[in-house]
Amino acid sequence: MSYSSIVEMANSGSLRGRITACVAQEGIDNPEQWTATNMWKIVSQPGWAEDWDYAQGAYNVNSNPDLGVRTDVIDDAQILSAVQAVQVPA
Question: Where in the chain are the domains?
């Protein structure tokens, strides 16, 4: 796990947008505010930093450099699972 990767994910506008879209689709009020409040909890989910690190290490010129938009790095199911986990803590 890389703390640098967690910081990069927390600051990724495209990843934040995907998370906000998920939050809105889940019917959570004020999705932008909810995402801003919970972004660090979401990007700290198990496995996320490792996936991000791997994508950075495997980068090639034919890959989209915007890791936050790439569903092969963090997929929509991971986002939904994280949003649901943060919304209803165990």
Answer: 3-87
